[in-house]
Amino acid sequence: MPANVRPGMFQHEMIRLLDRSETFREQCTRIAATRYLRVVFGVARSVPDGSRAQTSIERFQAGAVVALVTLKFAEDYIELIPHELEHVIEQIEHVRLADEAARQQAWRSRTGAYETRRAMAVGLRVRQEVTATTTAVTHTVPALRPPEQRE
Ligand SMILES: [Zn+2]
Prior knowledge:
Elements: E1 5-6, H1 11-20, H2 22-32, E2 37-44, E3 53-59, E4 65-72, H3 77-92, H4 97-102, E5 106-108, E6 114-116, H5 117-140
Parallel strand pairs: 1-2, 2-4
Antiparallel strand pairs: 3-4, 5-6
Helix pairs in contact: 1-2, 2-3, 3-5
The protein binds zinc ion.
């Protein structure tokens, strides 16, 4: 886990992601290498605009950047954690979301928040990686048979 990520209540999910997703590990390496950045995860009962998650970026004069990631309670954290982290990486890469929107790689919600194809793709890819590993484990470990039933 990068030292500059505060997982909040999502520590368990993040350890699982680190264990099972190469894509998530790459994201963490990228974030850990960005010294001026801090990522703080939180949870909320609801997120504006009916979304499942939201990330807001605060830039400070001294150059520090704090990303506040809020995930809606009881949503698919395994997809949303990497999805929102990708939005953070977009910001540290200075991706211009208006340009992305012009190229149809991003679009805005009614409240003005941007969604990007890139973040959606990463969230889905990580979830596939986690599911694939889980399936592989399931296939290599024989299931316990229930006790025989007699009529
Ligand atoms: Zn998004």
